[in-house]
Automatic annotation (TrEMBL):
Task of the protein: DNA polymerase III is a complex, multichain enzyme responsible for most of the replicative synthesis in bacteria. This DNA polymerase also exhibits 3' to 5' exonuclease activity. The alpha chain is the DNA polymerase.
Domain of life: Bacteria
Family, similarity comment: Belongs to the DNA polymerase type-C family. DnaE subfamily.
Organism of derivation: Savagea faecisuis
All residue ranges annotated as the DNA polymerase helix-hairpin-helix motif domain in the record: 753-838
Catalytic activity of the protein: DNA(n) + a 2'-deoxyribonucleoside 5'-triphosphate = DNA(n+1) + diphosphate
The name this protein goes by in its record: DNA-directed DNA polymerase
Residue ranges of every copy of the Bacterial DNA polymerase III alpha subunit NTPase domain listed in the record: 265-514
Length: 991
């Protein structure tokens, strides 16, 4: 039996059956064809089908425009050449409006293809006259047939009309049966999926009940028992589809600016070795070894292309990271300026990156500032050709919470109920719905939600949308459409129709360009320093032995520092007390699940509070930098080489075998290691002991190359925070979310950074540095349109601006009352004549000037002066922070016994504070009693106030967000964080 019309879930929400389910259910079928609307999921379908012994047929559904009519067709590849046509057809469809192509295109893309025209669907039968315009041509140029389906019901009269028409045209007629779910009982779930896709409710969806279900051969033959010839025709048609494999040959990108890539690579690498002052035997030997491996594997073009991409970035002043991942282990990468890390200085092992005994495509990931990724992609496309460069697709799937919300909306469940349900599911800490429901049985007991669970469980993890991968791109030596189907992304660049794993199987080489906000922050710091000092300054000029920077790390003052922000990491820093760059590297590697258990031991050994035991002289030397503890994967490889005489390539294979936790592989690795160690003079007992040590740490050893690369970015940020805090905080504020602003400002003030309000005369869009102060940019004004600044920047140039009337005159009709209020209350007009109250009263006259121009003298209006607290609250409403002063500063003059939160120290036991409530999280104890964790803050800091059941019962009514409270209680410090256990609480006011 042949199933010729399977739609899979890769065709987003047009089916709820996966390719794996299709292959499993139809394992006894000889041939199965998919007909998604694009070639989504083709490699996955082919793989699953062949694993089950099914011959896959690749097809797609194409909508063809003939005159004013749209006609659907199934188009199948008959052979490898037909498959090439399908890729072009799928790419063409994806780039047309409404995914409909003109009829004339079809002949260009139909060579070596079988075309079946379904003449009816759930909407009914189409008229034969619709097909007159092109059937004659198609019947002559390619394999073509009509098909009738009875899955939507049948009409004998219209069937006879089609039988007569087909005979008259001399065109074969067969049946078709489109499958979008496996069983009849899945029909409603499919309708729910359709409603999600169409953003409708279930009541608005009409669907044939059970029509798209998979039917057995017996059922199908029963449905068409009066037309057995249709089965014969189907067999004849699909017999034309040959068996073939998808292309998998490697498509290495080509460096276009060199005839001999390998020679160019060698010349550049050696020239840079001299340029970097590394022209000695040790570096020459390592470089020659790496180049030999690269030449044998024929990867020279790949290195040159990645280096070229980084050059394109730097030409456009786009900041690039120091390296990411294992590529930092390559001296060639360092010499090509792909990385900024000298691998020999840090003892990095090349085979951790590229091992010719485990040949895989090298994986060089590149970090770039997140605001300029599109700019770089456009530059790459310009260099290598738009038909040779594409972003990679990725599926957005219906995760546990997403599927419950989506299905719930379709079923008409209120948002409030869904919020509550999702909250309960989230509290289970599970990521799979079935497991979460097992932990929250109260949800399944509610009969009103039975349909919600039934449909959500079936739809969970199915693709919901297709978009561009956050990082991956491909560059091909030949036109991509000959290798992979394409479509346009939201950025108007090409995007593959296949996701990452299918791309790699097709032989294309993925290059990851990862957006990193921290690099954008660093770039902003550098830009401001260069602008203000008129001097060039680069990250490479930052010394790695700066005392202020290490004091910052030692104190755990690492809020905002990449990879070092969590409270646990801060505690680790305080324990370890880093004193050189390698300590930053090792802290980064240790603070991860598994190795973090070693942090106390590491800290004690590092700070000479505990001796370092000897393991074996060869091992001791390797572990010297980490005080006798295995931290890095590279150390495991070095131990295997030193003790057992392995090559680094063999050591990498052994390390990988151990980390896979495969018992057979582990035993084999142990035998290899012990044999090698004993052959190098070690006793069996010693060899077993050292292998067990390796096996223990191999489970979670972190790549040192990763840690070194990350640590550079962390160190650079910390350097600026410690040495140029005004620039650091200005950049951080420019690229932080609304909820991050106030904590940043409070922290900046602890670094003696002062803030100036937005200024119509001086502000730019982002925050800037003025002397030792930060001038807030216009972006801080809530609701101010991004388009305001370019207009204002242009009109204020070379103008004298003294009053609000000048602002109105320059902006003309752009000047509105809401805009004026935003500018005045935010402080942007403070440098103009008049107070905030006065300028608010001048708005009506200013509006007249904006509309009609300066009409002579302006009559001043005497308004009522606004009280200072009202002005502060209006300021806060615009800026989401207090810039003039903090209300608590004035209140503290009355409540003199209270102390600022920032002044609380560990020796203080009982304190009285004045603070306002930022957030409240209630929970219950094991005994079921209510309690609360309340985030409170003042003008200096933030901390957690804990209301245990007894105090919560007394003061619950007073706990409201933005309420000012006077709190008394006992202090405790957990992981270096301040917590107040509340005994007394008095409500002062509301802000």
């Amino acid at each position: 039996m042949i199933y010729g019309q399977i739609v899979t879930s890769d065709d987003v929400l047009r089916s709820i059956v996966t390719t794996e389910q299709v292959a499993e259910r139809l394992a006894t079928s000889r041939k199965v064809a998919i007909v998604n609307h694009y070639l989504y999921g083709v490699p996955s379908f082919v793989r699953h089908a062949k694993e089950r012994g099914i011959e896959p047929i690749i097809g797609l559904t194409a909508s063809i425009r003939v005159d004013d009519e749209t006609i659907p067709l199934y188009v199948y590849a008959k052979n490898r050449q037909g498959y090439q046509m399908l890729m072009k057809l799928s790419s063409a469809i994806a780039q047309t409006e409404n995914a409909v192509i003109p009829y004339r295109w079809l002949s260009a893309y139909s060579a070596n293809c079988l075309i079946i025209a379904p003449v009816n669907d759930q909407q009914g039968y189409r008229s034969p006259e619709r097909y007159d315009a092109f059937t004659e041509h198609l019947a002559q140029s390619t394999s073509f047939a009509f098909a009738i389906s009875r899955q939507f019901g049948s009409s004998l009269a219209e069937e006879m009309d089609w039988i007569t028409f087909a005979e008259k045209q001399g065109i074969p007629l067969t049946f078709y049966h489109e499958v979008r779910y496996l069983d009849e009982q899945d029909a409603v779930t499919y309708a729910v999926a359709t409603a999600i896709r169409e953003t409708m409710t279930l009541e608005e969806i009409t669907f044939p009940n059970g029509g798209y279900a998979l039917r057995s051969e017996r059922q199908l033959k029963k449905m068409y028992e009066d037309r057995p010839d249709w089965f014969t025709v189907q067999e004849q048609l699909f017999a034309q589809c040959e068996s073939y494999s998808l292309p998998t040959e490697l498509h290495m990108p080509r460096y276009l600016q060199a005839e001999n890539a390998m020679q160019t690579l060698k010349d550049r690498a050696y020239a840079q070795l001299v340029e970097k002052g590394l022209d000695d035997e040790r570096y020459h030997s390592r470089l020659q070894y790496e180049l030999d491996v690269i030449e044998r594997l024929n990867f020279a073009d790949y290195f040159l292309v990645v280096a070229h991409i980084i050059e394109l970035a730097r030409e456009r002043d786009i900041i690039v990271g120091p390296g990411r991942g294992s590529s930092a282990s390559s001296l060639v990468a360092y010499c090509l300026n792909i990385t900024a890390i000298d691998p020999l200085r840090y003892g990095l092992v090349f085979e951790r990156f590229l091992n010719e005994e485990r040949v895989t495509i090298p994986d060089i990931d590149v970090d770039i500032q997140d605001t300029e990724r599109l700019t770089l992609l456009q530059a790459v496309q310009e260099q290598y050709g738009e038909h040779h460069v594409a972003q990679i697709a990725t599926y957005g799937t219906l995760s546990m919470r997403a599927v419950v919300r989506a299905v719930g909306r379709v079923l008409g469940i209120s948002r409030e109920q869904l919020d509550q349900i999702v909250s309960i599911l989230g509290a289970t800490k599970e990521r799979e719905l079935q497991r979460a429901l097992q932990k929250a049985p109260e949800l399944t007991r509610n009969l009103a939600f039975q349909d919600l669970w039934k449909h959500s469980l079936k739809l969970e993890h199915l693709p919901r949308s297709i978009s561009t991968h956050a990082a991956g791109i491909v560059i091909s030596p030949k036109r991509l459409v000959e290798i992979v189907p394409l479509q346009k992304s939201n950025d108007d660049l090409f995007m593959t129709q296949w996701t990452m794993h299918d791309i790699e199987r097709s032989g294309l080489v993925k290059i990851d360009l990862l957006s990193l906000r921290n690099l954008t922050i660093l770039q902003r710091i550098l830009e401001m320093i260069r602008y203000n000092t008129k001097k060039q300054f680069t990250l490479q000029q930052i010394p790695l032995h700066d005392e202020k920077t290490y004091k910052l790390f030692q104190a755990g003052e690492t809020d905002g520092i990449f990879q070092f922000e969590s409270s646990g990491m801060k505690q680790a820093l305080r324990q370890i007390h880093p004193e050189r760059f390698e300590h930053i590297v090792v802290t980064n590697a240790l603070y991860r699940p598994g190795p973090m258990a070693q942090i106390p031991l590491f800290a004690e050994r590092k700070n000479n509070r505990r001796p370092i035991p000897s393991i074996h002289p060869a091992v001791d030397q390797i572990l010297q930098e980490t005080y006798g503890i295995i931290v890095y994967q590279e150390q495991i490889m070095q131990i295997v080489v030193a003790v057992a005489g392995f090559s680094y390539a063999e050591a990498d294979l052994l390390r990988r075998a151990i980390s896979k936790k495969d018992e057979r592989a582990l035993q084999q690795a142990e035998r290899q290691f012990i044999s090698g160690a004993m052959s190098h003079g070690m006793s069996q007992e010693e060899a077993v002991r050292i292998f067990q040590l390796i096996a223990q740490f191999a489970q979670y050893g972190f790549p040192k190359s990763h840690a070194v690369a990350y640590a550079h970015i962390s160190y650079w940020l910390a350097y600026f925070k410690a040495n140029a805090p005004t620039y650091y905080f200005a950049a951080m504020l420019s690229f932080s979310g609304a909820n991050e602003i106030e904590p940043l400002i409070r922290e900046a003030k602890r670094y003696n950074v002062q803030f100036l309000p937005p200024s119509l005369l001086k502000s730019r869009w982002n925050h800037t540095v003025e002397g030792q102060n930060i001038r807030l940019g216009f972006k801080q004004i809530k609701g101010l349109a991004r388009t305001f600044y370019p207009v204002w920047k242009e009109v204020r140039r070379d103008e004298t601006i003294r009053t609000i009337y000048d602002v109105a005159r320059l902006l003309k009709k752009e000047f509105t009352e809401p805009l004026a209020l935003d500018l005045i209350y935010s402080g942007a007009c403070d440098e103009l004549e008049g107070t905030r109250s006065t300028n608010i009263d001048r708005i009506p006259a200013a509006l007249g000037i904006a509309q009609f121009g300066d009409a002579g003298s302006i009559k001043e209006i005497e308004g009522k002066t606004k009280d200072s607290l009202t002005l502060l609250e209006e300021e806060y409403a615009r800026l989401q922070l207090y810039i003039s002063e903090h209300p608590l500063e004035r209140m503290r003059q009355t409540y003199t016994e209270t102390i600022p939160l920032a002044t609380i120290e560990e020796h203080m036991n009982y304190v009285k504070v004045l603070a306002f409530v930022r957030a409240i999280r209630t929970t219950r104890t094991k005994n079921g009693e209510a309690m609360a964790f309340v985030t409170v803050e003042d003008e200096t800091a933030t901390m957690t106030a804990i209301f245990f059941p007894k105090s919560y019962k007394r003061f619950a009514e007073q706990l409201q967000e933005r309420t000012v409270l006077q709190l008394e209680g006992k202090m405790q410090f957990r992981r270096g964080e301040k917590e107040l256990i509340v005994n007394e609480c008095e409500q002062i006011s509301r802000l």
